[in-house]
Specification:
Layout (H helix, E strand, L loop, with lengths): L1 H24 L9 E7 L1 E3 L2 E12 L2 E4 L5 E6 L6 E2 L4 E6 L1 H41 L8 H40 L2 E3 L4 E6 L6 E2 L12 E4 L3 E9 L11 E5 L8 E12 L5 E9 L10 E9 L4 E5 L4 E2 L4 E7 L2 E13 L2 E6 L6 E3 L12 E5 L4
């Protein structure tokens, strides 16, 4: 047994020696071979391009016509498509209760005027009596001083009555004028020149102000089609350098292949926090009526930068779940540089980050090229 144990120990030692000999005869581990990459220089240029943005044509002015008083629609002179001019009569209403109100107001005014005339006549009579007594009182013993004082106080009271009567007349006239004004509202006229685009009521219908009976819908709608507003919501990234008066091109589906132009008229100068867009309006002259309010349009919007920005091939921008980056080459090593992308210009992309013109970056980037990895360079010309 002892001999068998010794033999096993010798055998194990021999096998161990064989293993060591095998390791010593293996080839040494090869050093990592640098990845060969194609590089291109970061370019700097002034961005000046046009992007297509959706927009909508709206009338310059649009109004829903509601009557100012409640009444029955007696007649209406316009219908959908009718062209009207400012001040032109559109419709007439009838309100019998206004006739009664007018009669009451006229009666109240006549009564107030009669009271004023009576008060003025009494004042004139009492004023004459006072003046006669005052003149007679100059002779001693002819008129008692108390009579003169009573006559003077009567004149003062008459003057007060006349003032009150004059106020009543003025109030009665205002009331009559108010009724007359209400009656003038029975004739509805166009507030501006335009086209009737909707008509909701017909003669005989009871209608009134929007907050009153029958006011749930307008009688007609008028829009100004000679001048339109082209509403363009400009995305925050495309706001750039806008100038009032600059002519902008746009197209509409109704006229394929035809381009229209209009100047920038109004700029909101405020980005909507919900849509991240800025409201811009263009004034479109539409005297021929070719363009229809409510139509959608495609605007060719100019995008410019105040200063030159950096551009790289679109293939040079890559990313992972956390970052968007390009791979810059420094000292034969890859360096991930986080960037933000801007506009696309052909095969190039605008970027913003810690880069400088002339920096060498990998033309076709991939996250398989790790940060700090050794690389060998193959420089190409930027297209």
């Amino acid at each position: 047994m002892r001999r068998i144990g010794i033999a096993l120990i010798v055998l194990l030692g021999w096998l161990s020696g064989c293993g060591n000999d095998t390791g010593s005869n293996a080839h040494p581990s090869q050093a990592s071979v640098p990845t060969e990459v194609e590089t291109v220089a970061v370019a700097s240029r002034q961005l000046d391009l046009k992007v297509s943005l959706p927009a909508q044509l709206l009338p310059y002015e649009s109004v829903d016509i509601y009557p100012k008083v409640t009444g029955f629609l007696e007649s209406i002179r316009v219908d959908v498509g009718s062209r009207v001019h400012q001040g032109e009569e559109l419709m007439r209403l009838s309100a019998p209760e206004l006739v009664a109100q007018r009669s009451q107001a006229e009666s109240a005014m006549h009564s107030a005027e009669s009271q004023l005339a009576s008060a003025q006549a009494k004042l004139a009579s009492d004023q004459g009596t006072y003046e006669h007594l005052a003149s007679a009182a100059k002779a001693p013993g002819v008129v008692a001083p108390n009579d003169v004082m009573v006559a003077n106080q009567t004149v003062a009271a008459d003057k007060g009555a006349v003032s009150a009567a004059e106020y009543n007349v003025s109030a009665a006239r205002d009331a009559l004028h108010s009724v007359s004004q209400m009656e003038s509202y029975l004739t509805v006229t166009a507030p501006f020149s335009g086209v009737v685009t909707a008509r909701n009521l017909h003669p005989g219908a009871l209608t009134g102000p929007a907050s009153g009976q029958g006011g749930s819908q307008p009688i007609v709608r008028i829009v100004d089609t000679d001048r339109l507003r082209l509403i363009v919501p400009i995305p925050e990234a495309e706001v750039g350098d806008m100038k009032q008066g600059e002519l902008i091109s746009f197209t509409v589906p109704a006229y394929p292949g035809e381009t229209f132009r209009a100047p920038i008229a109004r700029i909101a100068h405020d980005v909507d926090v919900n849509t991240r867009t800025m409201h811009v309006e263009l004034d479109v002259h539409n005297a021929g009526g070719r363009l229809a309010p409510g139509s959608f349009a495609s605007v060719s919007w100019p995008v410019r930068r105040h200063s030159p920005t950096l551009f790289v091939p679109s293939t040079a921008v890559t990313g992972d779940q956390q970052h968007t980056f390009v791979i810059r080459i420094r000292d034969q090593k890859a360096e991930w540089v986080n960037v933000q992308t801007g506009q696309s210009l052909g095969l190039e992309t605008e970027i913003f980050g810690d880069l400088h013109p002339g920096d060498q970056i990998v033309r076709i980037a991939s996250d398989s090229i790790r940060n700090g990895q050794a690389v060998s360079l193959h420089t190409s010309k930027q297209s």
